[in-house]
Every structure is written in structure tokens, then in C-alpha cells.
């Protein structure tokens, strides 16, 4: 399979201060935990950041367990203290964490996770995409060619409601508010169909790359 890239994520809802040893609060999505580590870290993606929450007991009692028990891409609201802030990530000591019921984007974001190949391409196609958390990455010949932050919503940057889930993609390091905006027509275990919601690119259909296919 394609190599997994580090999480760096974007969500529409704004956060408060993002400075070292300062309080932070907002909404985000649970993007998974380390498979190994000492301590183990679990992650919340929100507003261009990947917040790492350690199992070391620094967070309020029970909050790490609550976070780690959430379904992948489960929506949460949180409060805490940020430490060791980097450009796109920081450690987070949680003081409050609550699952958000009825989030309109959670199911779609969960269905997107994984590696995809354009349907019109042959099985040995060099073009693939990979969605990890709120990262959308494009690959060609096994090398990542671009990476984008995903902002889920119901409208692109122009504010026109699309009557469904749209994914605004902003290139990491780019200056534009968004580089693409896709309306999700279908996202399930095996198929992904998106429609260009800001241009004339039409529909693009993908099939999931299974683990035993390689990549």
C-alpha cells in the first residue's frame, strides 16, 4: 500500500488561541491513535492542526479513554491546553471532551478513509488518491504529487449551498482559499463518486484499493 503521510487537517469551525501553553477549544474529528508508542497518542484534527493527546495521564481523568474509544472520524468538541506547538501539530492536554451527536459530515468522512483508484484507469494505473483523516493526497507512480486539507461543508468558498456534502480542498502551502471543491455523490465501502462543484470537471468515480492489491 502507499506510505501513510502524517496527519495535518482542516475543519471549518474556528478554534481559539493556538500558542504554546495557552488554552484552546473548538470542534474536530477523532483521526485515530498510534499503533505503537510509549506513551500512546490519539489525535484530534481541527483547523489545520493535528492535536496529539497522550496516554500519560496529563489530561483530565477518563478523557483519553473517551477519545480512544470513539469511532474513526467521530466528531468531538474539546477544551484543553496546547504544548510544543509546531506549524501543523501540537500536543494537547485535554480538560474537556464531548462527542458531538448528529454531525452531518462524520459518516462521509469515515467512508472516505483509504486508498482509491480512478475507475476509468486500468488496474496498473499509476494514479491514486489516499484519504487519511482530513488529508487528501494524490499519488503518481507511487510518489505523492500533492496534498490537501479537507474542509467538509455544504458550500464551496463561493457560499452557494450545494444541497449535500462538499469537500473543499486547500493545498498545503498554497495561498488560495481552496484549490478544488467536490460534491460527494456516493461514498461507500467500495466506491467514491465526486462532482466538481466549482468548475466544469464533471464527475469522477473511484474504486477502493484493497489491502491485498498493493499500490
From TrEMBL:
Which controlled-vocabulary keywords does the entry list?
A: Signal
Q: Organism's domain of life?
A: Bacteria
Q: Where is the signal peptide?
A: 1-19
Instruction: List the protein's name.
Output: Uncharacterized protein
Q: What species is given as this protein's source?
A: Fuscibacter oryzae
Amino acid at each position: 500500500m502507499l506510505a501513510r503521510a502524517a496527519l495535518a487537517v482542516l475543519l471549518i469551525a474556528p478554534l481559539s488561541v493556538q500558542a504554546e501553553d495557552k488554552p484552546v477549544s473548538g470542534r474536530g474529528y477523532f483521526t485515530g491513535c498510534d499503533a505503537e508508542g510509549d506513551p500512546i497518542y490519539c489525535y484530534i484534527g481541527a483547523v489545520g492542526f493535528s492535536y496529539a493527546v497522550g496516554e500519560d495521564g496529563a489530561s483530565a481523568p477518563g478523557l483519553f479513554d473517551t477519545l480512544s474509544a470513539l469511532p474513526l472520524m467521530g466528531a468531538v468538541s474539546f477544551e484543553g491546553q496546547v504544548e510544543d506547538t509546531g506549524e501543523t501539530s501540537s500536543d494537547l492536554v485535554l480538560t474537556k471532551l464531548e462527542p458531538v451527536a448528529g454531525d452531518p459530515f462524520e459518516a462521509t468522512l469515515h467512508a472516505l478513509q483509504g486508498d482509491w483508484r480512478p475507475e476509468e484507469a486500468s488496474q496498473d494505473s499509476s494514479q491514486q488518491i489516499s484519504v487519511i483523516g482530513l488529508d487528501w493526497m494524490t499519488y503518481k507512480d507511487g510518489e505523492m504529487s500533492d496534498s490537501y486539507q479537507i474542509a467538509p461543508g455544504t458550500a464551496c468558498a463561493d457560499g452557494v449551498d450545494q444541497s449535500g456534502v462538499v469537500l473543499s480542498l486547500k493545498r498545503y502551502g498554497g495561498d488560495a482559499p481552496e484549490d478544488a471543491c467536490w460534491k460527494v455523490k456516493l461514498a461507500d465501502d467500495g466506491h467514491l463518486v465526486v462532482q466538481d462543484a466549482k468548475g466544469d470537471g464533471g464527475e469522477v468515480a473511484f474504486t477502493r484499493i484493497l489491502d491485498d492489491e498493493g499500490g
